[in-house]
């Protein structure tokens, strides 16, 4: 069990983490979600005793990480953002070293083999870590965290660098481990958190922006009914007509997909189905409907809404590759917000 | 501590620092042995030991430069600092790994002494006390090197700074002879590494000297621990 109370970390004037509180029960998987620089790694570093907190408290199985660090650390398996691998060692040699470092009492050979099998590194156990691919290094990093079978697992972006098949396998593994461990994992990938975690904390600018069970967050999301229609015809007129549909929340034209064909995004108010009336209007005006697909609001949208909708802007959207995509999405989300304001 | 110590001793050999260190150390030891004992045709080895002081100033930085700087650079430090071990175990594990390698290098003097014994009477008492003098000196020097390695992410920077620091310790004696102010000269005499070392190699062995070198080793290892505590709280 992990208890975090008012945890805060300042670097000079910079508030990397600001007054975060939550608990994770035994057998629960908590997901940390947030854009680059949100404070996920900083929080994890405080939980594992790598850095101290400016104020606040973190208890691991009831033991304060700063008051009794050695005991608290013995409960934790930690996979940091960059796995702490000694590149000159073989996988087996390294894991043996970790076994000794953690003063592990389990039967050495059987335990190491079990962990290596779980993380699928048995076939590279004699290889020098330096020569492994990034995905394999990540798996050795995960193996290192699992040695000694600690009751608490803290995993900072555990699936980074893995191929799609491996991502699925590691997710399944984490889910399995979650049954009898306390797990915190961080990620930028929403579907991953959604698939693995029982509860989600969305963290932004060092603060908790949302905290709920995965089910609740997903439920909120799916009540919104959105469709994307591809219609051939005059853009302005179509938008004007479609905005008259009863129960519509907003309508806006998107990109031109084909010559004279635009995509329109329509959102209905909760519980309304606008598709019949949409069809009627298009038939009356003789505008061919080329495609219609439902655009259920994804957790992604919720995430972007929560982290950026309130006029907050991410400081450095171009800090990492994947943030480019996020920034583009953010723009759409912002536009959506604007449109809504226009409507109101 | 055992795990860190064993990994570090292993790393000395995989990084080939051990081979470089041992080879260069033994070459110089052999050269001074040849120059002071064989050429001078005596069985008195003290000349060899006096020359070794300077060799330690140059070679001990090689031994210690990597110890913490490399951990920081490769980000493995995070694994150490989040493992259920104390900072003392981490620092002393690394410290004793370096001391072990240094002791292996130093033990060669007994091989030379055995060779000498084929030519004449070896003063085993002198050999032992000289061995001890070099060992104590090395233990103090290594602690300084470990400390400076913890302050630097770059191992070359750690090497240069350690070399300068050890050179400064060597120079205390020279400065002492130049200083005219009496109390300052006395103070420098107390701090001098060289005169204590020299005294032992001449067979003047006393407890306060042993305490001095061991205290220096203790103080610098303690300071290294403090660095990590400070860094965590920053
Ligand atoms: N040692 C430090 N000194 C100053 N600022 C720091 C330090 N470490 C982190 N920060 C700042 O704290 C904030 C939070 O960083 P953190 O690494 O926790 O983000 P993150 O959520 O893990 O991001 P990412 O998704 O990129 O891994 C960032 O703005 C970062 O610049
Ligand atoms: Mg991070």
Task: Give the CATH architecture of the largest domain in chain A.
Answer: 3-Layer(aba) Sandwich
Most extensive contact = A-B, 28 and 24 residues
Query: Looking at CATH, which topology of the largest domain in chain A would you report?
Result: Rossmann fold
Could you estimate the helical fraction of the residues of chain B in percent?
A: over 70%
Number of helices of chain B: 12
Instruction: Give the N-terminus to C-terminus distance of chain A in angstroms.
Output: 46 Å
Overall radius of gyration of chain B: 19 Å
Largest sheet of chain A: 6 strands, mixed
Number of separate helices of chain A: 12
Tally of individual domains of chain B = 1
Low-confidence stretches of chain A: 309-344
Largest sheet of chain B: none
Task: Supply the helix-strand structural class of chain B.
Answer: mainly alpha
Overall structural class of chain A, as computed from helix and strand content, comes to alpha/beta
Integer-rounded radius of gyration of chain A: 24 Å
When the domains of chain A are counted, the total is 3
The arrangement of helices and strands of chain A along the chain is EEEHEEHEHHHEHEHEEHEHEEHEHH
If strands are numbered along the chain, what order do they take across the biggest sheet of chain A? 6-7-8-3-9-10
The helix fraction of chain A, in percent, is 25-40%
Q: Quaternary state, please?
A: heterodimer
Account of the 3D structure:
The complex is a heterodimer of chains A (344) and B (234). Chain A has 344 residues and is α/β, with parallel strands linked by helices. Chain A has helices at 40-47, 69-74, 91-101, 108-118, 134-146, 164-178, 190-196, 214-222, 235-242, 275-285, 299-308, 322-343; strands spanning 2-11, 14-24, 29-33, 55-60, 63-64, 76-79, 152-156, 182-187, 199-204, 207-213, 225-232, 248-258, 261-268, 289-294. A six-stranded mixed beta sheet of chain A has the order 6-7-8-3-9-10, with helices on both faces. Chain A has a four-stranded antiparallel beta sheet with strand order 2-1-4-5. Chain A is elongated and about 75 Å long. The two termini of chain A are 46 Å apart. The mean pLDDT of chain B is 87. Chain B has one domain (2-233). Chain B has 234 residues and is mainly α. Chain B has twelve helices and no strands. In chain B, helix 1 (2-14) crosses helix 6 (87-106), helix 2 runs antiparallel to helix 3 (46-64) and helix 8 packs antiparallel against helix 11 (193-201). The radius of gyration of chain B is 19 Å and the shape is globular. The longest helix of chain B is centred in the middle third of the chain and has 28 residues, at 124-151. The chains are: A alpha/beta (344), B mainly alpha (234). The A-B interface holds A 45, 48-52, 70-71, 73-74, 76, 78, 80, 82, 84-89, 93, 97-98, 100-103, 144 and B 2-4, 6-7, 10-11, 14-15, 74-86, 232-233. The complex binds adenosine-5'-triphosphate and magnesium ion. Magnesium ion binds next to helix 1 of chain A. Residues 11, 14, 16, 34, 36-42, 81 of chain A line the site of adenosine-5'-triphosphate (ATP).
């Amino acid at each position: 069990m992990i208890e975090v109370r008012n945890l805060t970390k300042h670097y000079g004037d910079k508030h990397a983490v600001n007054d975060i509180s939550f608990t994770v029960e035994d057998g629960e998987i908590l997901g940390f979600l947030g854009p680059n620089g949100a404070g996920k790694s900083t929080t994890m570093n405080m939980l594992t005793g790598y850095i101290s907190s400016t104020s606040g408290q973190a208890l691991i199985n009831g033991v304060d990480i700063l008051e009794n660090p050695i005991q608290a650390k013995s409960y934790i398996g930690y996979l940091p953002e960059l796995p702490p691998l000694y590149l000159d060692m073989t996988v087996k040699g390294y894991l043996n070293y970790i076994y000794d470092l953690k003063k592990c009492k389990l039967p050495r050979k059987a335990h190491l083999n079990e962990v290596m099998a779980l993380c699928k590194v048995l076939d590279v156990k004699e290889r020098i870590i330096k020569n492994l691919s990034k995905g394999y290094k990540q798996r050795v990093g995960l193996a290192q965290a699992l040695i000694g079978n600690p009751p608490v697992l803290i995993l900072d972006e555990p699936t980074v660098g893995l191929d799609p098949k491996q991502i699925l396998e590691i997710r399944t593994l984490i889910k399995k481990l979650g049954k009898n461990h306390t797990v915190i994992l961080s990620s930028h990938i929403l579907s991953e958190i959604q698939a693995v975690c029982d509860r989600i904390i969305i963290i932004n600018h060092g603060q908790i922006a949302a905290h709920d069970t995965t089910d609740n967050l997903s439920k909120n999301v799916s009540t919104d009914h959105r469709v994307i229609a591809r219609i051939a015809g005059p853009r302005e007129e179509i938008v004007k007509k479609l905005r008259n549909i009863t129960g519509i929340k907003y309508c806006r034209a998107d990109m031109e997909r084909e010559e004279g064909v635009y995509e329109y995004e329509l959102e209905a108010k909760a519980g309304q189905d606008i598709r019949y009336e949409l069809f009627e209007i298009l038939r009356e005006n003789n505008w061919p409907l080329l495609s219609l697909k439902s655009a259920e609001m994804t957790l992604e949208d919720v995430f972007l809404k929560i982290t950026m909708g309130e006029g907050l802007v991410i400081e450095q959207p171009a800090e990492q590759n994947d943030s480019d995509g996020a920034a583009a999405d953010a723009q759409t989300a912002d536009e959506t917000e604007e449109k809504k304001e226009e409507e109101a | 501590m055992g795990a860190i110590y064993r990994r570090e001793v292993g790393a000395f050999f995989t990084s080939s620092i051990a081979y470089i260190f041992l080879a260069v150390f033994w070459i110089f030891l052999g050269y001074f042995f040849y120059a002071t004992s064989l050429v001078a045709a005596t069985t008195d080895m003290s000349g060899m030991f006096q020359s070794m002081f300077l060799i330690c100033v140059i070679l001990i930085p090689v031994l210690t430069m990597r110890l913490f700087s490399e951990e920081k650079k490769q980000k493995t430090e995070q694994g150490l600092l989040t493992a259920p071990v104390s900072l003392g175990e981490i620092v002393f594990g690394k410290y004793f790994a370096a001391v072990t390698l240094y002791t292996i290098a130093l033990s060669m003097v007994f091989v030379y002494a055995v060779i000498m014994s084929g030519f004449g009477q070896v003063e085993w008492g002198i050999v032992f006390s000289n061995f001890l003098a070099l060992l104590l000196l090395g233990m103090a020097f290594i602690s300084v090197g470990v400390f400076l390695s913890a302050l630097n992410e770059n191992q070359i920077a750690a090497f240069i700074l350690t070399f300068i620091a050890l050179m400064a310790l060597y120079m205390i004696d020279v400065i002492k002879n130049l200083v005219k102010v009496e109390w300052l000269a006395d103070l420098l005499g107390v701090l001098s590494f060289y005169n204590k070392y020299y005294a032992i190699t001449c067979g003047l062995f006393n407890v306060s000297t042993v305490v001095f070198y061991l205290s220096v080793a203790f103080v610098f290892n303690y300071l290294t621990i403090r660095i990590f505590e400070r860094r965590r709280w920053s």
